[in-house]
Write a structure and sequence with these properties.
Layout lengths: L3 E4 L5 E4 L1 H10 L3 E3 L6 H5 L12 E4 L3 H14 L3 E4 L15 E4 L6 E4 L4 E4 L5 H9 L3 E2 L10 H7 L6 H4 L6 E7 L5 E5 L4 H7 L8 E8 L1 E2 L3 E10 L3 H14 L4 E9 L14 E9 L3 H7 L1 H4 L6 E8 H5 L11 E9 L4 H11 L8 E7 L19 E10 L5 H15 L19 H5 L3 H11 L22
Length: about 475
């Protein structure tokens, strides 16, 4: 008699025998977790507390063969699957209701070959784990913004961060990837092997298989870099944003400047009088000689009477972790995002209007800048298409009380709609679960080719718990 059920690709409940579950468990080096078992609850939890789903089974994989076993089980049973790396994705794609969650978090090894300028990284590794390993050799991989982010999701969506202007997107340093495909094969994708798959993995998300190892080119940088914050009063936000734009348009590639508009948290270097008040943060990082960085920062320091200037030479690993306390797991989060070519006067006015009435103390408006080395790659060279210099605007609502859900989500959506006339696209890693209709904005001219690659490697759309690219329909030709 069947004793369990699992959600299938069609959304139905499929009976599942204890014998079949036991077979899967026996095929794994790692653990198979079920509701009620020890570690199940912690394994299903992800960074965004808005996500509260209960898989029927969680396969905690320890190596690529475990992933193969889980994929084959899904094919044989028709199970709906999700894949968890770092569990940081805003849409909560890592967790599937009633299906099979393939958990890669234990596959977090990092192996640096300094002589070859290469690093191999497991899909469960966080940026903190990668940074620590490379920094020991005076090396970096250009990754993201916070150390708790998982390398897998960041990379598969493109990956931008503090070193993007100097060294390119994360995918621009990707040399190869080991991938388990929907038919249970293990492939190595690179410029020489399966180049179509390699192209798609660089920005196309988790649509094409499960990456079980990333190989990156490393770069010399640090380990100490000039970085920090310039904090300005909110009533001078328009002046700050204009200066921000003027600076990044002419700055050397080594200099990254981002703007954040939010209520001031109780940071130790801020006067107590501004805690909880709206301010503008200009976050800076210089990927080069600190003396040259100090000169590059002179335009930003020209603004009179800042609240605080906390910029100095520190380990890059410390800077990468500087904002982790503001983004700990357990809060409810909702994002809306636009790519914006330029911050014209109308855009700035709209940003300041909405940023001055945020719905919670932890909400923020983030404006990153993608340019430099990232912009010297063609729009169709990788699946990630928006290579023109642009700002990434993320409307990040964050709160604790479920009673605030409606107000926080409404603020983000209203702000998002007013900014739509200024948009040139969207960064796929910043898309919430309700942004499924924005694939054309995310991928532009690359969407049709991505659908063709999807059809070649996952024609049955097994990997669909993501911002899903449907397989291209087969072309029927007359005989």
């Amino acid at each position: 008699m069947p004793s369990s059920t699992i959600t299938t690709l069609s959304g139905n409940q499929q009976p599942l025998s204890e014998a079949r579950i036991a077979d899967l468990e026996a095929s794994l080096q790692g653990a198979l977790l079920r509701p009620g078992e020890r570690r199940y609850e912690s394994a299903r939890i992800v960074w965004n507390a808005m996500i509260d789903r209960r898989p029927a089974l969680i396969a905690r994989c320890e190596d690529a063969q475990d992933v193969v076993a889980a994929v084959r089980f899904a094919r044989e049973t028709g199970a709906l699957i999700s894949v968890k790396g770092g569990g940081h994705n805003i849409a909560g794609s890592a967790v599937v209701e009633g299906g099979l969650m393939i958990d890669l978090s234990a596959m977090n090894g990092v192996a640096v070959d300094a002589a070859a300028a290469r690093v191999r990284v497991g899909p469960g590794a966080t940026l903190a784990e990668l940074d620590a390993a490379t920094a020991a050799h005076g090396l970096v991989v250009p990754t993201g913004i916070n150390s708790t982010t998982g390398i897998a999701g960041l990379t598969l969506g493109g990956g931008f961060g503090w070193l993007t202007r100097a060294l390119g997107l994360t995918i621009d340093s990707l040399v190869s990837a080991e991938v388990v495909t929907a038919d249970g094969r293990i492939l190595r994708a690179s410029a020489e092997e399966h180049p179509d798959l390699f192209w798609a993995l660089r920005g196309g998300g988790g649509n094409f298989g499960i990456v079980t190892e990333f190989e990156f080119r490393t770069h010399e940088a640090g380990p100490d870099l000039l970085s920090g914050l310039i904090v300005l009063p909110f009533d001078r936000a328009a002046e700050a944003l204009r200066l921000f734009q003027a600076t990044v348009e002419t700055a050397p590639d080594a200099l990254t400047v981002w703007a954040v508009l939010r209520k001031a948290p109780p940071l130790p270097f801020l006067p107590e009088a501004v805690h909880g008040k709206y301010v503008v943060f200009l976050a800076v990082c210089y990927a080069g000689d600190p003396a040259a960085g100090a000169r590059a920062l002179e335009p930003l320091k020209s603004i009179a009477d800042p609240i605080a200037v906390a910029v100095g030479v520190q380990p890059f690993t410390a800077w990468q972790q500087a904002f982790d306390p503001l983004l700990t797991p357990g809060a409810r989060n909702y994002w809306k995002s636009h790519d914006i070519p330029r911050l014209d006067d109308a855009a700035v006015a709209t940003i300041i209007d909405h940023a001055g009435r945020q719905p919670s103390d932890e909400t923020e408006v983030f404006l990153g800048h993608v340019a430099g080395a990232a912009a010297r790659v063609g729009a169709t060279e990788t699946a990630f298409p928006n290579r023109e210099p642009h700002f990434v605007m993320n409307l990040h609502t964050r709160w604790r009380d479920p009673a605030q859900d409606a107000a926080c989500i409404a603020w983000a959506r209203d702000f998002f709609e007013e900014m739509r006339p200024h948009s040139s696209g969207v960064y796929v890693n910043f898309m919430p679960d309700d942004d499924a209709g924005r694939l054309a904005e995310a991928y532009g001219p690359n969407l049709a080719r991505l659908a063709e690659v999807k059809a070649a490697y996952d024609p049955g759309n097994l990997f669909r718990r993501n911002h899903n690219i449907a397989p291209a329909a087969p072309i029927h030709r007359a005989a």
